[in-house]
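Ligand: hypoxanthine. Inputs:
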Amino acid sequence: MSEATGRDDPLDRLPKVDLHCHVEGTMRRETVIELAAHNNIELPTSDPAELYHYSSLDSFLEVFWLVQSLLVDRDDWTRLAYEAVVDSAAHGLVYGEFFFTPARHLEQGQFLADIVAGLDEGFAAAEQETGAQVRLIADMDRAHGPGAALAMVSQLIDLRRAGATGMDRVIGVGMDSTEEGVNPADYVAAYELAERAGLRRTAHQGETTPPWTIQAALDVLRCERIDHGLSVLDDLEVTRRMAAEKIPLTVCPTSNIKIANHVERLELHPYAEMRDAGLLATLNTDDPALTELDLGIEYRAVHDAFGYEFADMVAIAGDGIDASWLDDDGKRRLHARLRSAAEELQDSG
Ligand code: HPA
Ligand code: ZN
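Predicted complex:
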């Protein structure tokens, strides 16, 4: 396999899915600057790159919230969504389930209907241009508490029932932001409501907290996936169960270095160990623009760090398809596309 990078890299061109990407975390630097100017928001520095150094998840969240604050009206969401897909598709994204976390926007008076409609407009335009497909996961923000989470899910369901624009794109709920000091079980009412309405369920868990929190997300919140789930290997029983039940983990190794500061180098990340334990550990970007990342770079980095072959990376891409919330037909079609692209790229690589 060649050592090429960027678009010359077969791993960049390989059709890939991203199941753990925060749409706000895809905001281009130019867009950060332009939206700040447009919305009269003062940035602490004129060079966003200076902002993008984090010593912990909580210090990252300060920057994430600043970026979120730049999204003021519906058009801002549309621009963000459009650019997110165009930029991801340029590095092989064919299908994404992207998070958005509207708690602070709702608190400041924005309407969920406008946010979703804005995102939908941008996604639709980019889908048409790139052929990639994107769905949305509405994340509850733990920093805003269980009451706000329940209100958000309840609004979501009302809008869905009313057939509001873009709502068919929202296929599930999740939960992100700070983990420490939060018992996932406190969010059971919101998750129960989501399940009754037929929404899929995931949660950021085990990024900075022990495996019992993962277990609570599975047993109490009835999550079907776990985002990050880094601490899973600390508990043999939870590991065995997740492997046996093929409960996917959406792992983001580069994020875990740059955001959570979990390990110093990729070689020290438990990703390969997770896969060796039989876990359905998929590969994803988290907040690509805020960590100077894209899917192609992530696949290349993991390939190099763990001595994986091209075929291993194809298997990882295939696991992403299996872990998605596409229906069986959608999964079959993506698998076929992956297979034929992999054969072609293998020959050219
Ligand atoms: N963890 C928690 N919250 C987040 C993250 C993350 O990795 N990215 C954006 N919000
Ligand atoms: Zn995340």
